[in-house]
Design brief:
four-stranded antiparallel sheet; alpha+beta; 16 strands; 9 helices; globular; twelve-stranded mixed sheet; 368 residues
Amino acid sequence: MIICMENASPGLVQLLQSFPMLSLATSTQGKELAVFMEEHSMSTGSLEVTFTRGSDYFGLLAVQGERSITMCIRNSENALLAVGSLTTRSSFIRGKPAVVGYLQDLRVSKTVNASLRQKYYEFFTEFVRLSPSLPDLNFCKYFYTAILSNNAPAKAALSRERFTLEYSKLFSYQAWIFPKIPGLGLLSSFQSFDIPTKEEVFAFYNTELGSSMYDLDPKDIERLWGYSKPLCLREHGTGIAFCLLVDMNRLREMKVLFKNMNLNVSLTSTQVFALRVAKKISHKRKSEVKSTLLKQAILKSYCLKSQVLGYMQVENDIEVDSHLLFKTKVATKGDIYRVFHRDHTSLEGFVDGFLRPAHTATFEWVMS
């Protein structure tokens, strides 16, 4: 559901009245927002990275979560100057169901002056502060965001004295990209892939999800099903590990500008999503099982049209072995932050949103 002025709560409408330069995007503006995102890339040192959204900005938001809200600033000619979105979905915090929110796509045109830029940040701050009391995003009080480790401008922005949202690092991750190696496509044609039924997939995830912090919910699997191809490993006829290969090309494309070489590269991708090993598998064998399914996913990706396969490896999660296929990857590091307002520290369950040392959290490609 897209939250806009037509379905906004009275509390959100009242907040917006204090920021007349801001508006909420509607479903009819999806193409305009997609163009704005493509024109305003993220700078990370010698790279500029842009995630395009095809012809509809809201396509990715719709599979990310149950509700979304996109804030915009426009000039007197009604042209976009800034965009930022939040999505919420059903998840788990310390094994209990909870609504969690994800902050993303904060893009501000270089033409925006400092005063207006500050007002934009102030609105985000106030919205996050009030969210636990607003129905618009299901009273969400657990927000998080992802930032690439080498994105110095984004991290510097977090320390602005007048930007009063708190950013507390939860954990790190590595975004793995497996390019397609010439010759392996032929090898994949001789492989036998176990394709489970939808009933098998949902029966597995209904049982296995929920043990990790910020874990997926079966509703995430349902939203992605139309974009996905499932894979599984079996033992004595029973599935012991499952994943989805998500066709991201229908939702976004990654464009990378290598500034030093003035080289533009467009990458289409399939993403390994929701790779889970059954809880009943011994800890000693879980790495082997996970590695085997990931190898199958890499080989299966050669049957698909995308140029690369992506996978997210979160710290403290099950490691994979040193198989030759895994050595071909390109890894980019990132960090997940808990985002909150100081007023939230008095909320019941506030501390539950942080990880304990023994916790493993999840963060999936499609959520970023």
